[in-house]
Amino acid sequence: MTELRSILDEAARQGLISPEAGGRLLPFLAERGVAVAGVPPAAAAEGQAWSDTETPRFVRGFHDVLITIGVIVALVGLWGLAPLYAVPVAIIVLSEILVRRQRLALPAVSLAIALFCWIFFLMSRVFTPWTSEIGADLTQFVAGFPIILGVYYARYRVPLSLALTIMSTLALVLTLLLRLVQWLSGNPAFFVDHLGVLAAVAFVCALGLFATALYFDLGDRLRRTTRSDIAFWLHLGAAPALLYSTVSLLSFGEGGRIFDLANMSARTPVVVATVAALMLIGLVIDRRAFVTSGLLSLGVAIFSVVRKGNATVDTYIFTTLIVVGAIVLIIGTGWMPLRRLVLRALPSAIANRLPPG
User: Fold this and answer.
1) Residues with Cβ within 8 Å of residue 124, at least 6 apart in sequence
2) 276: which DSSP letter?
3) How far is CA 50 from the centre of its chain?
4) What is the pLDDT of residues 58-102, one digit of tens each?
5) pTM exceeds 0.70 for this model
6) 10 Å Cβ neighbour count for 81?
């Protein structure tokens, strides 16, 4: 089943069939006993029902890892020696060879990240968005991301590049909303004086990102097409966005800064409750990204609680590590039983639209 799915995924990446057609062909072929040489039809039929739906398909073997290491080392060296404008040329050349021709997944991810970093440095040189006022420079700074990343996705069809395009587009919408509210108020420093409004607008955009991720996810509940890969990256961005905006919204009276350690102890219940809610959402939709994204903030919250006691530095650092590590192990080892319990508690109309447990 896994081999057959890989072949159909590869056919979709080469444009021979559409991802949706590949998703429909897989159960069709498996029901009729079609299998890859060396894989018995019975095993294919048995695996049809469900396999781990969050298996990363951008890591196929050590060959991809080796090529990716070479890409990273070469780009870092080029970045240090050549002008900034030479980097995208190298990214395009490598993408033509490794992504468009050889269809290597992990190098495609690294090249998409490299392009994102290049856009960030380029826009930072051209515009100066780092001011308290939300002005035209910030909008123009953000606008460069969806344009360039969108063109890259149109050419190479890398799921991460589409996810980054969607996230940067929502970030652009966020800056436009903030500028609109700022203009209507007539106060250039409106959000400095009204952190609650800033947190509320950010929370709405985070919900929009999460809804977009769910759109891709629920359209491929068995996660057999590239829609699942796109949803994976969107969830990876939506989870911390929801966490930080929610905590800022519920604690803006203290400054709205989630990592303000001086006041973190007062905000700890909010952080813990938010992380717990994200973990529950992660169980429901079968996305571990919601769990992992909250661990850093949960660790900071636990750190601040223990720090308020009279423990030594070593004691509260290691206590934090033990608690967070225990949570990871408990959730990681009991993920499927916990998820089955959660799915049983949901109405069947909702559970049937989610990945099977």
Assistant:
1) 141
2) H
3) 23
4) 766 778 889 999 999 999 999 988 888 899 999 999 999 999 998
5) yes
6) 8
